[in-house]
Amino acid sequence: MGTHHRGPENEVRALDTFIKLSRASDTLGSVAAAYTESGLTSSQFGTLETLYHLGPMCQTEIGKKILRSSGNITLVIDNLEKRGLVRREREEGDRRRVSVHLTPEGRSTIARVFPEHVAMITAAMSALAPEEQEELARLCKKLGKAVAATASLRKNPGS
Known about the structure:
α2 (42-54) crosses α3, α2 packs across α5 and α3 (59-66) crosses α4 (70-82). The protein is mainly alpha-helical. It contains 6 helices and 3 strands; from the N terminus they run ααβααββαα. The N and C termini lie far apart (39 Å). Strands 1-3-2 form a 3-stranded antiparallel β-sheet. It has a single domain (9-155), classed as Orthogonal Bundle (Arc Repressor Mutant, subunit A).
């Protein structure tokens, strides 16, 4: 079901598209959440996956990669650290900088969970032909950049 808004055509189209995109994203996210069986939240999974593929990094960098606020990423890493999946280390050259590292248990957990996650995403996305997947990716990137630029202009009107 689309919007019940009965405004101008461009508003109805935009709202209908937003609703469909949101529903598809929510459905895909719930289907592909293999990590929940390991007791991980989506933010915890995203953090482990980021560290697994990109290596150690500071909390701010992780937050930017998985689109979480600094307060939220601190809590996520605190909880992962309590479970023994990550550890924080002060950088030798700059003691103010703390990097987050996977522990052996964290590496084992993400190595076990990630392939199932990939399989679920691949199966779900197979509803679209390869060309359609590429087009969807292109359109999502275009939309994301345009929205980010608009948001940036609102924050910095003189830019």
